[in-house]
Amino acid sequence: MLKSNCTTWDFLVTLQLFNQSDMKTIVFPVVKLIRMPLASHHTVSQFFLAVFWIWMHLLYFTVTNQTFGTSPEEDAVNKPNRPIPAKRISVDSAIILRWVLVPVNLALSLYAGAVPSGMTICVLTSIYCSGGGHSHWLSKNGCCAGFYALFEYGATQIADSSEKLNRNQLGAIIGSALIIITTIHAQDFRDDEGDALLGRRTFTLSFPVFSRITMPILLSVWSIALCLLSEANQFVMLVLVALGAVTGIRFLTLKSAKDDRLSYLYYNVDMALNGSCCFQLVES
After folding, report:
1. Alpha helices in the chain (DSSP H)
2. 62: helix, coil or strand?
3. Predicted TM-score (pTM) of this structure
4. DSSP secondary-structure letter at 3?
């Protein structure tokens, strides 16, 4: 249960804590894209509706993920600030919240005009959590790319008030998904110890040396390719290439969990810039 003296503010803080660690991975990069002309006709109200849609569907995923299997016990050790290990909410109450979010999000998607994306996020969440998608690097990376594409597709559709996205918008989303599926193992380095104890077969555990070698190569290649093909200004290009190289080299040379957490923060900034260049690419 929630704390007996829980206020509305406490409850909202609890909800945000479910989403907090994924804000930089999903919410901020996607919001940056829909703020740009990727959703070229949006109004202020449409923009905030899209942001709220992202946040609510992310909440469904994070609540499901943090209540599934041994996640509560794992978070008690690795991420004690999350709502369940922090005793802000019980596992049973969080499970009830998870099921309440299903019809709430369906109604929200129906109102916003993004039902296919919303329903597919629910299905992909089940595949990731209860279907074992999180346990092997191939399915995990594929699911992560799928989540990113679905959030981006649905939010762009809402912000642009369009039933069907155009070729340029789809191209930007596909480009972002390709970058994610080839580099998202950046998030696994920081959790290697815990993942090993749980028997997960992440890319970083399956290929500990090769996975680190890929980071400077892939991040640099993506950054250079996007800069060469897009119409982003020279300063953005320079920052993108430099950040990709620095982030990749950090992953290769600095291998403590603390260093990997900071490198992952750099990675998320790099992904936001890459997403911006994806849009410039398809518009050029």
Report:
1. 8-19, 28-35, 44-67, 71-78, 91-112, 115-129, 137-160, 167-183, 192-197, 203-206, 208-229, 234-253, 257-283
2. helix
3. 0.86
4. -
CA 111/CA 90 separation, integer angstroms: 31
DSSP, residue by residue, 23-54: IIIIIHHHHHHHHTGGGTT--HHHHHHHHHHH
Q: Looking at 130-166, list the stretches that DSSP marks H as alpha helix, in order from N- to C-terminal side.
A: 137-160
Distance CA(116)–CA(102), nearest Å, equals 14
Q: Could you tell me the CATH number of the domain that includes residue 152?
A: 1.10.357
Residues 6+ apart with CB under 8 A from 124: 133, 143, 146, 147, 150
Angle at 276 between CA 254 and CA 261, to 5 degrees: 20
Work out how many domains the chain is built from and give that number: 1
Rounded CA-CA distance 279/169 in Å is: 7
Exposure string for 186-203, b = 16+ CB within 10 A, e = fewer: bbbbbbbeebeeeebebb
75 falls within a domain: yes
179 within some domain: no
28, 37, 79, 283 from 199: Cα distances, Å: 31, 43, 18, 44
Tens digit of each residue's pLDDT (9 = 90 or more) over 212-252: 999 999 999 998 888 777 766 777 778 888 999 999 999 99
Is residue 276 a part of any domain in this protein? no
State pLDDT tens for residues 8-49.
888 999 999 999 988 877 887 777 666 554 555 567 888 889
Q: Phi then psi for 201, rounded to 5 degrees?
A: -110, 65
Question: Within 13 Å, how many C-alpha atoms sit on residue 159's CB side?
Answer: 26
31's tokens: 């919001």
Residue 21 in domain: yes
